[in-house]
Amino acid sequence: LLPGTSIGLKSGKHAPARQMIESGVRVALATDFNPGTCFSHSMLFMMQPGALLYRLNAEETLTAATLNAAAAIDRTDQIGSCIHISWGSRFSTGSETRKLCPPGDR
Questions:
Q1: Residues 6+ apart with CB under 8 A from 4
Q2: What is the pLDDT of residue 23?
């Protein structure tokens, strides 16, 4: 599902995501960032209109943007799942690694 493309093209038609999910299809949510159809590379932004346009609940939206998106490119062994982390854990955004700190603590 590419909500940014629907928005960028000002299309009144959207993928029948609700029907797809109810039929058992594992949908993925993505961006196809490019100057012709989609002006945003932000997955957080894609999740917001994706939920509204496709009538996805919070769990469906998160799953479509993470686990199902990773499965769509056959990379579930490397990306796509959220794991439990605690304060002091480190996380990587790919280009840098940061330490998680409680709010107000640096």
A1: 31, 32, 33, 37, 38, 39, 40, 45, 46, 49
A2: 94
The distance in angstroms from the start CA to the end CA of the chain is: 38
Rounded Cα distance between 33 and 41, Å, is 5
State the residue for tokens 């993928």: 15
Count H helices, E strands: the chain?
5, 2
Q: Which two tokens stand for residue 48?
A: 């917001």
Over the stretch 37-92, which tens digit does the pLDDT of each residue have? 888 888 888 899 888 889 998 888 888 888 888 888 888 777 776 555 554 455 44
Cβ within 8 Å of residue 99, ≥6 positions away: 88, 89, 90
